[in-house]
Amino acid sequence: MKFVRPQPPCCPVSPVGRLYAVGMVKLEETPLPGVGVRHDFDGRFGKRVGVIRHRDGRREIFVSRRDDPDACAQNIVLSDEEAEAVADLLSGSTITRHVARLTQDIEGLAMDWVNVPGISPYAGRPLGDTMMRTRTGASIVAVMRDGQAIPAPGPEFPLHAGDTVVVVGTPGGVVSAAKLLSGEG
After folding, report:
1. Which of 24, 54, 131, 145 has the fewest CB atoms within 10 Å, counting from its CB?
2. Secondary structure of the chain in the HEC alphabet?
């Protein structure tokens, strides 16, 4: 498979790509007229890695040589479900690493994932009923339910048995929050 790489910006007939950074990786975004958008970057070990988002929704992962990014060495076409599974696998580990780095960088900050057990006095009640911040100094910043993340839930948000809440605060506050949700606090 051969990709058409745009000419330098001085050529007016070519689409112009854009460069942006995610973490320490510089991603290049290139419109592919009639096809979709290509996102790629130079990998650490001499390979160019990227994804083409086709207009019809397909995703295609490709690997090429850094010195000849148009010569595709390997490509894999993914269905919507497969692309979502790969994204979940990759983003989950990325998010976890970023959060771990963040908590290490901010002294005194702790974060934990706390399960809401069926015996919790707050299962089936609004989040505000916990008075979490007042009682523990910690905050619930997200709730994981049925594999979906609900960021920044408000005080009216109902907690369910089996939810996993993301609690942020001091180390002692996070421990107190876990005890409160389990009915021990």
Report:
1. 24
2. CECCCCCCCCCCCCCCCEEEEECCEEEEEEEECCCEEEEEEECCCCEEEEEEEECCCCEEEEEEECCEEEEEEEEEEECHHHHHHHHHHHHHHHHHHHHHHHHHHCCCCEEEEEECCCCCCCCCCEHHHHCHHHHHCCEEEEEEECCEEEECCCCCCECCCCCEEEEEECHHHHHHHHHHHHCCC
